[in-house]
Every structure is written in structure tokens, then in C-alpha cells.
Amino acid sequence: MFGAAALMCVIVILMIAALASHSLTSIRQFGFGFLTNRDWNPVNQQFGALAFVYGTIASSLIALLISVPLSLGIAIFLVEQAPTFLSRPLTFLVELLAAIPSVVYGLWGIFVLAPFLREHVEPHLARWFGWLPLFQGPITGIGLLTGGVILAIMVTPIISAVVRDVLAAVPSTQREAALALGATKWETTVVVLVNGAPGIAGAVILGLGRAIGETMAVTMVIGNRPEISLSLFQPSYTLASVIANEFTEATADIYLSSLIELGLILFLVTFVVNAIARLLVWRVTRRTLGATA
Amino acid sequence: MTSLSRADRTRRAVSGIMTTLTALCTIVAVGILAIILGYIAMRGISSLNFRFLVETPRPVGEGGGIGNAIVGSAALLALSCAVGIPLGIGTGIYLSEFGRGWFATFVRFLVDTLTGVPSIVTGVFIYAVIVLRMQHFSAYAGGIALALIMIPIVARTTEEMIKLVPHSLREGALALGAPQWRVTLGVVVPAAASGIATGAMLAIARVSGETAPLLFTAFGSRFFPRNLNEPIASLTVQIYNYAISPYDEWHAQAWAATLVLMALILSINILVRFLTRKKL
Questions:
Q1: Domain that holds residue B93
Q2: Whole-prediction pTM value?
Q3: pLDDT (tens digit, 9 = 90+) per residue, B170-213?
Q4: Which CATH number fits the domain that encloses residue B137?
Q5: Which residues of B touch A101 (CB under 8 A)?
Q6: Second CATH level (architecture) for the domain A52-292
Q7: How many domains, chain B?
């Protein structure tokens, strides 16, 4: 048993060591400029990660913008509002969204979501908000917006599951106190939300971590072009999807090494993001567990 | 009096509106699930037939099937279970039964963060330590990549399940003079066995949908696998390759393969739901 646990540590250390040692060629050649250079050109062997960092951050932010209110609503409804006979099957159905594989989301994204956004959503966005640089340029349905929307659907069950746990961990005495003071159902919910705030922040950051590392679905709908454009209609590229797309084509050492360095960056970022999220969620659930025990 | 009741009415109205809004959020999520599953069923069923399930892929226009991908996925899953489940259960038992002090907290933290490592990074890692060393793609590399994703899931559910075993059971066995290891393996683990099995099944469902870690470990193949030391096909990679191809016929096959994959994943999830419900 101890051996298995020790193996966990070995795996993590090995992971960092392997990724770092294979990135060395690229780190030596490009240094910190790797992160600030937007030029990714395998033909000239010029490699800079800025376009992918931008695409990853932009698509993840779009995803959070859509999924955070949605997930909060779902969690509040399932924990605070819905009667048990409704909340149990609905909880299962929302969780099923998390069981759908990434590649299936991608398939659905290419053939259903992208055409839908192209025909029915993006033209309206361009008409009403076209004065914003965010909604300019040709409409193809394949781009940052579609990637963000598909990510939003994928992280919603994850965020809402953690928020549900956090809300359920808020002691019921808090609710009873609010109700006893004459608060309405919603006012009681606000009290509960304030109590669980750090945990909810943790859930959102956890969702961010998932969005950053999500690969297949995004790769299939984001357009895969290493460009930095303000427009959400334009194709973009993420750290994870460039690895998925170009890894098997990378023949030159420096090309492969640059891709592995992207993997190292992805690993470190998600590691830190997840660690922060876990600590926040632990703080809420542990505090209340301590209070009841 | 009137102003008070008006304020009161507003508060009630706000409460009602917010309840409706939260209900709407839930309906949106469930609606999206229904739409996705509906499309898979609708588009998948039209290309699905027996020959599709047993044949190997053919060039565009000649039909072909996903027989080799089904066998390949099964082989990859078997490999990953053989490696991942024992290690995951071992880690879980350690964390729940012997896990005191800073080392256990540290391991628990590592397991939690490993769950969040993007699966594509796992693929890159396995490529660097196995594929580069062996000089070729193989089913072994793919299976181990999937196992790495499985271990933290199995470990955490095992830990949770073992924690549910009542202390009186352990105390009874210890009082009869059994050493700690016999108490753990002979009494505690069997008592939690069904829960541990459920966790393992969920891990299998999760891993069977993974694509990213297989792209450059198992790679893919157009033939039935003959041994595990060569590249091997899998349902998910096949779906990906067909989905991004420019041919309508391959798109239809991608939907059909997705239907097969989703049937497996959904039945595991529903079975687990059914099993855990009976216990509660």
C-alpha cells in the first residue's frame, strides 16, 4: 500500500523531470522569449507560444463567462430549491454531461453547434454588437466563440457538482436562522452563498483548470490557426490543441522540444490552478465538517 | 402599512423570479444533454449494422467498419485496468487505513491534482518516457497512459468507500487478535468491495472516452491487432480521424462509432447509479 502511495510521488516527479528534460533544447534556444513571441513557424524553426497562450486564456474566459452563472443556477436549484424527488434524477442527468467524452463533444460541435452558431447566433451578434471589435470579421462558425461555448458546456457539470457539495456543506442552522428572521427563500439562499463563497471561488477555478487543459473538443471547433485577433469569430489555437495536432508531425528536434515545452507549461499552469482550487474548496468543506463533528 | 406590504411583495416576487431562473438553468443543461444524445442516436443509428461492427476500415466509398477499433479499445481498457486498478486501490487503502501525518496529506494532495492534469499532458509524458525509448507507438504505451488517468480516480473513490466501513468492524477484528494487515485485507476491504468496484467502473467509463492521451501513444491502425507491441486502433481516435475528414461517408461512420461508444459509457453510468441507489 505504501509502495503504491510512494509511486504517486514518483510519477509526479518523473512527469516534471521528463517534460523538463525534453524541453531543454527549446528552453536553451528561446529562453523566456518563448512566452512572448507570437511567431510559430515550423518551416523557419521559429517557435513562440504567445498565440496559444492567448487562445487558451480567451477560450477559457468565454467558457467561464457562460458556465459560471449557469452552474451556480443549477447548483442553487438542485440544493436549495428543488424538492428531493426532482433534484435526485436531475442531479444525475446534469452529471451525465460530464460523462460525455471530449471527442464526442467535438463531433457534435463540428456538425451541430458550429452550423447553429453560424446561422442563428453570430449574424445577430454581428448586427447588434458589430461596433465592438469582438464581433467583427467573417462569420464561419469555426473559431474562438464556438470553442468557448463547447468548453462552457463541458465545464458546467464540473463546476456545478463542486458548488453543490459546497452548498450542501453549509450548516442548515444558517438557513434556519435566516428563515426565522423572515427571509424569503432567495434571501436565505444569498446567506448560504455568502457562507460558501470561498468554496464557490474554488469551484470556478477548478472549472478554469479543466477548460485550460481540455483538448479534443476545442481542437475540433476552434479553427487551429496561431493568430491573435480580438474577434471571437476568428480561428484561434490553444496550447492543448497545438500539441494534439502537430505532435506526430514534428520531425525536427527543436520542433518536438518546443511542443513538449508547451506541455510543460500546460502541466505547471493546471497544477497551480488546481492546487489553489483544492485549497479553497477544502477550506469550506473542512471547516463545516469540523463544526458538526 | 401599505408601503411595508409593497416592499414585502417585491421581496416575494424577487424570490419567485430567482427560483424560476435557477430552474431555467437546470432545464438548459438537461436540454443540451437531450439534444446531444438525440443527435447521436439519430445520426448514429442510420449507419449502424452488423458488418459495420466487425469489419476493418476501408477507403472512402467502400464501406468498412470499426471492428478493429472495438477490439483495440477493449485491449487498451484491459491493459489500463490491469495496471491502474491495483495501483489505485493500493493507494486508496494506504490513504484511508494508514494515511496519517504529512506524507499522507501530501499524497492526497498529489492524487487530487493528478486528477486535474490535462490528459494530453499525460500523453506527452508517456511519449517522452515510453514511446521515445521503444522507438515506436504501441498498445502498451496507450494502456499505461490510460492507467495513469485511472489511478487517481480509483484511489479517491477507494479511500471514500473504505472510510464508510464502521469502526466497530475493525475493532472487532483487532480484538480477536488479528494483525493490522489482516484486518485491512480480510475485513475492511471486503466490506467496502462493492463500493470500490463501483469506483473502478466509473474510472473505466471515464477512460474509455479518452482520445488525447492515445494520439501519440497507441496512435491508431487500420488492421485488427496482432500483438500489443504495435500501434493499435481505438474507437475514440477513429471517431476523431473520421470527424475531421472531408468525407460525408466517414462523418456518418463517426456518428455510428460514437453511438457504440456512448452506449458503453451510458450503460456503465446507469448501472453504477442503479447499484449505488440500492445501497442508500
A1: 51-279
A2: 0.93
A3: 999 999 999 988 999 899 999 999 999 999 999 999 999 999 99
A4: 1.10.3720.10
A5: 208-211, 236, 261, 265
A6: Orthogonal Bundle (1.10)
A7: 2
